[in-house]
Amino acid sequence: MYHSFFFRAHANLPIDRFDIFRYNSHGNFNMKENRGLRKTLEQQRSNQTPASNSEKLGTMPVGKLLFSMALPMIIAMIIQALYNVVDSIYVAKISENALTAVSLAFPMQTLMIAFSTGLGVGINSMVSRSLGEGDHKKAGHVALNGIFLIALVVIGFTLVGIFGSRAFMASQTDIPEIFEGGTTYVSICLILCCFQFFEITLERLLQATGRTLDTMISQGVGAVINIVFDPILIFGYFGFPEMGIAGAAAATVFGQFVACVLALIFNLWHNKELSFSFRGFRPRWSILKLILAIGVPSVIMQAIGSVMIFGMNRILMSFVSTAAAVFGVYFKLQSIVFMPVFGLNNGMVPIIAYNYGARHKDRMVHTMKLSVLTAVVMMLVGLSIMQLFPAQMLLLFEAEENMLAIGVPALKTLSLSFIFAGFCIVISSVFQALGFGVYSLLVSFVRQIIVLLPVAYLLSLTGDVNMVWWAFPIAEIATVLCCLLFLRRVDRKVLKPMEKAIAA
Length: 504
Known about the structure:
Helices cover 79% and strands 1% of the residues. By secondary structure, the protein is an all-alpha fold. 52% of the residues are buried.
């Protein structure tokens, strides 16, 4: 697997588990026979000063810890999901074509999220792991190098916004109103993407040290700002100009700006475990390589989602633009169900990463099991709501008869995938937290590229758009099988050898 991920600590760093564990040529753990080194490690850990807020990741009861860290993130994610829904509700009041334009812009937004959250996973995991090993200096270096890496990505997306927005929309539609509206929306979001990227990065640093309440506040305030300014900028209330779709994009960017500023303030005031001084800073390839080793598979995994949405839009537009609008509405509605699970994951990942670094296997397993159970319950609640009230949810988006005819069976079929999704989401994040990001990548690739898109295309050949939606439950079943296969390998390669090593 990630042989480069398990690196040997430099001589000037504290002895850590990487000096004890070694990967052999087959990717399995070997335990050094030198028990004196193990004893030195234990003495070193016992002499460390408390790591203030991050120490609770290794000591607080798992149930209390998980929910104390996850609850603020779940609340923040629900607020984020609500602003996505409200944003589309207001856009739908302009016209169905405006709603379709925003739906076609969604793959590019998903791609930005893929880079920001994917690299954020790498930064978060490496910071938490460094703190778990008691190496605060290294954790600070990881944070600074992570911010530098994000700045490079921002430059790339800004250039895409300036030069590539029209080509992106032209690849999906030739309907003038949809093309122009989508181009406007994408351009604004891309050119001003710096606020989104730095907001997410700074929030991941807060999560890495257990300060999820600060993250909830920054995300929540940003989302509320977006919700408040959506109608004001779209329809021109209180003396503001009527901006239409551009107003929706501007409200989104303004909310991200406010959240970014708050996240920066919280890091400077509260995150004492990390140093944010760039004086004398130079990028360290050794650290960037480790961030990328974890983050790139996550980026690719989520970018695959962007490809999937783009491909589905192409398939659905071959029927009627209303089908693409329904698909966009579904993604907004399902975010209310999925976002709390992602919030749970954001609380789970630093716990598992920290205890992985501290070699607390029981706490890792307990956290994983509790997270899976909670996620499955959340998804079943979402499934029930979407099965019982599909028409009522579509009417929030000004759905007319044609949209209801396509949308009601679509929501009922698509939501069947929720039965399996909670388990798959949590297990994929566990793979990332343990440094097996490539497993998450393979799971995502199988689900969305190998199964979902080909099945959706084949079902589209029936000429019945309602058949296309069944590709999602079918793909989710394949995902469960992949997750179970890789979970067995992780147990064999990491958890069982860790248990034997600790007992030795």
